[in-house]
Amino acid sequence: MSLLLAVACAGPDARTPATGPSTPSPGPGAQGTIDVLVLTATAGFRHASIPAARQALAQLGARHADLAVTFTENLADVTPERLASTDVLFFALTTGELAFSDAQKTAILAFVENGGGFVGAHSATDTLYGWPDYGRLVGAYFQAHPWTQEATVNVEDTSHPATRDLGGSFRLRDEYYTFQDNPRGRVHVLLSLDPGSVGAEGDFPLAWAQEFGQGRSFYTALGHFDETWTDARFQAHLLGALRWAAGSIARVPGSRTMHVGGTGA
Description:
By secondary structure, the chain is α/β, with parallel strands linked by helices. Helix content is about 20%, strand content about 25%. The chain has a domain at about 35-140 and about 205-245: 3-Layer(aba) Sandwich (Rossmann fold), CATH 3.40.50. The protein has helices at about 50-65, 80-85, 100-115, 130-140, 225-230, 230-245; strands at about 35-40, 65-70, 90, 115-120, 140-155, 170-180, 190-195, 205-210, 215-220.
């Protein structure tokens, strides 16, 4: 099974092979691998942690034989043809109104609705406000980050692949988001901020999962700092998310049929 992680980044040539210092991960399309296309493109604020995110994800691919991770900052790489050989599309620290064409937007929706996986991290919710279908896909839009500090994160589902290694709660220094509307009720909330740990009251979901057509979508609000990406707990969180997002795909590599049409930009 292949996994596609897409991260959009600004820069002239951001394609980087997902290999670590020793053992490389299987190449895209290898039998039994998850093809992940990571997009780190930004059209707004650019996080200083993008290099750390890329390195951490490359190391995950090097350590786990079922992951084949590819990086790009070129929006033109997100095509129906590329998505047809991808399992999970990952928006890592993307921001702003990325200049996807209407055809690309339609292809992204069709990819997930027909069984592909989508993963978003941190500012993936600070992306594509002008495309409401993307808001449905990622689950919510960013509103503010009122707390940048160490806080307690509650694990609401200790059995989900993305959270089962995290215990009942954990402490983490990060930039904690609030959202324009609370996604609870539309999505399955996995992590939430303990409001008392930041001197607040209310309900603040931080990570969630949802079925999207025949596919799956996962989002985590964590990931602002380099130290978050190098934290073993966060890496376990992402590894479980990638495997879960790819789990809706029952196919041999290259066998997905893309039906591009229907809802679009």
